[in-house]
């Protein structure tokens, strides 16, 4: 409990600082002019901090509540601060005893987080788009779902134009990035849990194929920004560990929802999230 509280406070501090300095890739305490910008931009930092913690908190609350409902032991969320003040956070996680869950319980716990997170992230992103200032180009990539929202909410924007980063827009953007990464069906990511609940051990082949495709993209396309992610997944183990009652049927409703959830990383994923020159 103390660790969770300390990490939450640390993440609140780094996300506040990220908003104050305007989501620049600077390091807290080294080259961030936090004191100089605090007076002018503290409100932006506060709004971003509350919004992004709300998005991440909704995601983890979805997991936690589903785990409690199914009586699967789980920890409170562990928020992850990031002193490089680009987003101020690497998201949040909960720990749970997944080996005690059956297929339906694993599915419910895994899918509840992304759904809850998107329910908060998409309206926050929409609010940021509606109140944002148009710019010719943004340093932050636009995933497909955000591009569709922008064309609908801001028809006044010229072709190729974007929204200047603001507190609500960036909180929603982080929510999409975190959700998209988590829903990739590999290892013990949310998508890996969902995939394993749906396909059982056959999900291992899907996970291995995705990992190999990611490695190929790094080598052939030069997507070196994903090296760290691939290394983390490889260290976690590509294959999902076994669970209780592995043969229990998932059911039609959960299967259809699971198949639909496979679209989440497609519409929220950004191969090159940052467009800084």
Question: What does this 3D model show about the protein?
Answer:
This protein is mainly alpha-helical and 277 residues long. It has helices spanning 2-21, 34-69, 103-131, 144-153, 167-182, 190-199, 203-221, 227-236, 252-261, 264-268; strands at 78-81, 89-93, 134-135, 162-163. The protein has one domain (2-184, 245-253, 261-268). Helix content is 60%, strand content 5%.
Can you lay out the helices and strands and say which pair or pack?
Layout: H1 2-21, H2 34-69, E1 78-81, E2 89-93, H3 103-131, E3 134-135, H4 144-153, E4 162-163, H5 167-182, H6 190-199, H7 203-221, H8 227-236, H9 252-261, H10 264-268
Antiparallel strand pairs: 1-2, 3-4
Helix pairs in contact: 1-2, 2-3, 2-5, 3-4, 3-5, 3-6, 6-7, 6-9, 7-8
Task: Provide a brief overview of the structure.
This protein is mainly alpha-helical and 277 residues long.
Key attributes of the depicted protein:
single chain, 277 residues, mainly alpha, two-stranded antiparallel ribbon, 10 helices, globular
User: How many domains, in number, for the residues?
Assistant: 1
Low-confidence regions: none
Side by side, the strands of the main sheet go 1-2
Distance between the termini: 41 Å
The biggest beta sheet, please?
2 strands, antiparallel
Radius of gyration: 19 Å
Total strands = 4
Overall shape? globular
Chain-averaged pLDDT: 89
């Amino acid at each position: 409990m103390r660790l969770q509280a300390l990490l939450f406070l640390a993440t609140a501090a780094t996300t506040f600082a990220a908003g104050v300095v305007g989501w620049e890739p600077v390091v807290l305490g080294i080259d961030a002019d936090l004191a100089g910008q605090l007076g002018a931009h503290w409100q932006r930092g506060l709004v971003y901090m509350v919004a992004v913690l709300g998005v991440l908190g909704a995601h983890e609350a979805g997991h936690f509540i589903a785990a409690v409902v199914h009586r699967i032991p789980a920890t409170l969320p562990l928020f992850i601060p990031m002193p490089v003040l680009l987003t101020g956070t690497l998201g949040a996680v909960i720990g749970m005893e997944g080996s005690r869950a059956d297929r339906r319980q694993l599915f419910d716990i895994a899918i509840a987080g992304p759904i809850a997170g998107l329910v908060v992230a998409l309206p926050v992103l929409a609010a940021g788009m509606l109140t944002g200032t148009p710019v010719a180009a943004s340093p932050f990539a636009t995933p497909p779902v955000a591009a569709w929202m922008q064309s609908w909410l801001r028809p006044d924007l010229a072709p190729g134009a974007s929204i200047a980063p603001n507190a609500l827009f960036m909180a929603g953007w982080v929510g999409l990035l975190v959700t998209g990464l988590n829903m990739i069906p590999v290892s013990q990511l949310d998508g890996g849990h969902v995939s394993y609940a749906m396909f059982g051990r056959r999900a291992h082949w899907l996970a291995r194929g995705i990992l190999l495709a990611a490695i190929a993209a790094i080598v052939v396309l030069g997507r070196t920004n994903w090296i760290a992610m691939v290394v983390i997944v490889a260290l976690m183990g590509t294959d999902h560990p076994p669970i209780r009652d592995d043969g229990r049927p998932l059911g039609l409703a959960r299967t259809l929802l699971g198949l639909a959830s496979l679209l989440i990383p497609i519409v929220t994923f950004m191969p090159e999230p940052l467009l800084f020159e």
